[in-house]
């Protein structure tokens, strides 16, 4: 037995879903996953280097910070609006 008003309920749910998944929200999700990948790779590479007897904490994180600076720098340069201080 169909639910009364189910078509309008489905449309409103679809409309709300489309409002949530905007380009800005997806970009935030992608950037968050990228930062998470960098953090994970830092932990993995640090533990692997420590297991092999290397003790160089700055060198272990340098590549990740370099990649983050390049990616974030390109994002900031590409922005059309100036950065705002809260």
Brief overview, please?
It holds the Pfam family SLC35F. This protein has 86 residues and is mainly alpha-helical.
Q: In whole angstroms, how far apart are the ends?
A: 54 Å
Q: Element order, helices and strands? A: HHH
Average pLDDT number: 77
The shape, in one word, is: elongated
Secondary structure: helix percent: over 70%
* Strand residues, percent: under 5%
Total beta strands: 0
Number of helices: 3
Largest sheet: none
Which segments are poorly predicted (pLDDT under 50) over 5 or more consecutive residues?
none
* Computed structural class: mainly alpha
Radius of gyration of CA atoms, rounded to a whole number: 22 Å
Keywords: Membrane, Transmembrane, Transmembrane helix, Transport
InterPro entries: SLC35_F1/F2/F6, SLC35F_Transporter
Membrane topology: Multi-pass membrane protein
GO molecular function: transmembrane transporter activity
